[in-house]
Write a structure and sequence with these properties.
Chain B: This is E2 ubiquitin-conjugating enzyme. The complex is a heterodimer of chains A (about 350) and B (about 200). Chain A folds into two domains: about 110 residues, Ubiquitin Conjugating Enzyme; about 200 residues, no CATH class. Helix content of chain A is about 45%, strand content about 10%. In chain A, the strands form three sheets. Chain A has a four-stranded antiparallel β-sheet with strand order 1-2-3-4, with helices on one face. Chain A has a two-stranded antiparallel sheet with strand order 5-6. A two-stranded antiparallel sheet of chain A has the order 7-8. The termini of chain A are far apart. With about 200 residues, chain B is an alpha+beta fold. Chain B has a single domain, classed as Roll (Ubiquitin Conjugating Enzyme). In chain B, strands 3-4-5-6 form a four-stranded antiparallel β-sheet, with helices on one face. A three-stranded antiparallel β-sheet of chain B has the order 1-2-7, with no helix packed on it. Chain B is globular. The chains are: A alpha+beta (about 350), B alpha+beta (about 200). Chains A and B meet through α4, α6 and α8 of A and α1 and α2 of B.
Chain lengths: ~350, ~200
């Protein structure tokens, strides 16, 4: 490889990454790459980011460049190591061919897979991203002002509570100024605007606490083939939609199955429906579902829009509500689909 | 079945009633008592905890057992809604080697609403602790946040004890305690927090 070829490669890196790549030296190549997960430019959904240094010696590309992490946000130590490990592995794999762009791509790709917050939801204290594969995962979000993360449902419940409180206070003639569009982050008390959580209101409003509760109950997990296939269809639709947007934008990327791209939040796969074992139980269940149905009808007018927006870009899973909504003419009918006879 | 019942249960969020009728106290921390609504929902209720509250408290208890805050001991009972906790004054402070008992009661809507935290008399003699066990500490009332836990509250209380300049009661102790007869909850009091020293 000649120096010229390497120089051209560096130009390519600059062209692809623009401001995200800081060229420290053009020969031997040395650059800092600011990487963010691929979330279709939706920053509210980015829970991690990193700056990676790629530094090659004069023997590049016969000798792979050194790769290290200069800076990272939201990544615990384990994921930092993993990320570097993957990129280094890629480097030795591609040894003796020009690899800078490929390495950058690998880094972004891997970071995208690791795009989740660390630790527990400060409100319910259950993990935001259970890695044991056992626990049911719930959608979560971050507050844009302070980056604190919560389960969508938990933060919405808190938000609603807060404003019910404020209303009660003002009705009692308290002079405290009441602003319904403001709150404070439960963790750091930084001001939260209604618009910071608006994007999840629609998604959570209608499901109420169903996901939360089902997530905490083990067992009773039936597999409904109809649900399975429907959710698969939805998923495929979403991937197609995002692929299209990326093609339109001239993006280079094929979406991957594990990339999550719903505005502002991470949607887990839908929880399997609870199955019941006797007719009596079945009856009471569908009755309750009817009740819920009625509830979700009342706020569907406001939440439909938002949900619709999310549907186009969704990358992974969706909530029960979306499916139920597919048959809005007769709210009672589709509930039948949900009950598995055994 | 149980699962489907719980899934479909909608959480009710009762309103908190606060009434301000008269103002009292002129010490570093004044208070306003509400004389009506003694049955109010902000008093610790005998009603069962919500499912959310239960899950959260179980989680807190597990975490406490793994990693209890230094100086505290939770007395094991089967009552999740009411915890009794022993606190021992930190070494090198006015309360070193003294042990007091805290009683923590959780409202139905915990953690949206703060727990009621009081010392079981005899309460430590402290400028912010009344002889009936009520504690004047902002995070227990207006500054409560649902991201706080029993453990973090305990740490705040111990730090309040540790930073005490003198073992004495609040200046308005007698009047306050007299007004709080009949086991009134400190959450009924409208606290004004002026003093940030302790």
């Amino acid at each position: 490889m000649t120096e010229e070829e390497v120089a051209m490669e560096m130009e390519a890196v600059e062209a692809v990454y623009g401001d995200e790549a800081v060229i420290v030296d053009s020969y031997p190549p040395h650059l800092h790459l600011h990487i963010k997960p691929r979330t279709a430019e939706i920053s509210s959904q980015q829970f991690v980011e990193a700056v990676v240094r790629i530094q090659a010696g004069p023997k590049y590309p016969d000798e792979p460049p050194q790769i290290s992490l200069i800076e990272s946000k939201g990544l615990d130590e384990q994921r930092q190591k993993l990320l570097m490990g993957f990129v280094q592995e890629k480097a030795s794999e591609l040894s003796s061919s020009l690899m800078l762009v490929a390495l950058c791509e690998e880094a972004v790709e891997r970071l995208t897979i690791m795009n989740h917050p660390d630790g527990d939801c400060p409100l319910c204290l259950y993990s935001l991203f259970p890695e044991d594969g056992q626990s049911n995962q719930m959608p979560f979000m971050k507050l844009m002002s302070c980056f604190h993360c919560f389960h969508c449902e938990c933060i919405i419940r808190w938000w609603n509570w807060l404003h019910t409180e404020k209303e009660a206070d003002s009705q009692n003639g308290n002079s405290r100024s009441v602003d319904k569009s403001l709150g404070n982050c439960p963790v750091c008390r930084k001001v939260v605007h209604a618009s910071d959580i608006e994007h999840v209101l629609g998604l959570v409003g209608a499901t109420q606490s169903s996901q939360h509760e089902s997530g905490l109950l083990q067992g009773e997990e039936g597999e409904d083939p109809v649900l399975q296939s429907e959710s698969e269809n939805m998923r495929r639709e979403r991937f197609e939609a995002i692929l299209k947007t990326q093609e339109e934008k001239g993006g280079l990327v094929q979406p991957k199955k594990n990339i999550s791209v719903v505005p502002g939040m991470y949607l887990p796969p839908p929880p399997p429906p609870a199955s019941s074992s006797s007719n009596q139980e079945e009856a009471s269940q569908s009755q309750e579902q009817e009740h819920k149905e009625a509830e979700s009808e009342t706020n569907s007018s406001t939440s439909n829009n938002r949900r619709g927006r999310g549907r186009g870009r969704g990358g992974r899973g969706h909530s029960n509500v979306n499916i139920r909504k597919q048959n809005p003419q007769d709210p009672r009918k589709p509930t039948k689909q949900w009950v598995q006879r055994s | 079945t149980l699962a489907s019942k719980i899934i479909n249960e909608k959480e009710s969020v009762p309103l908190k009633k606060k009434t301000v009728k008269s103002k009292g106290g002129d010490a570093s921390h004044t208070f306003i008592l509400s004389f009506s609504a003694m049955t109010s929902s902000s008093a610790p209720s005998r009603k069962a905890l919500s499912k959310i509250a239960c899950n959260r408290l179980q989680k807190e208890l597990t975490e406490w057992q793994l990693n209890p805050p230094t100086g505290f001991r939770h007395k094991v009972t089967d009552n999740l809604q009411k915890w009794t906790i022993d606190v021992t004054g930190a070494p090198g402070t006015l309360y070193a080697n003294e042990t007091y008992q805290l009683q923590v009661e959780f409202p139905v809507n915990y953690p949206m609403e703060a727990p009621q935290v009081i010392f079981v008399p005899p309460a430590p003699s402290h400028p912010h602790i009344y002889s009936n066990g009520h504690i004047c500490l902002d995070i227990l009332y207006d500054s409560w946040s649902p991201a706080m836990t029993v453990s973090s509250v305990c740490i705040s209380i111990l730090s309040m004890l540790s930073s005490s300049p003198a073992k004495e009661r609040p200046a308005d102790n007698d009047r306050y305690v007299k007004n709080c007869k009949n086991g009134r909850s400190p959450k009924e009091t409208r606290w004004w927090f002026h003093d940030d020293k302790a």
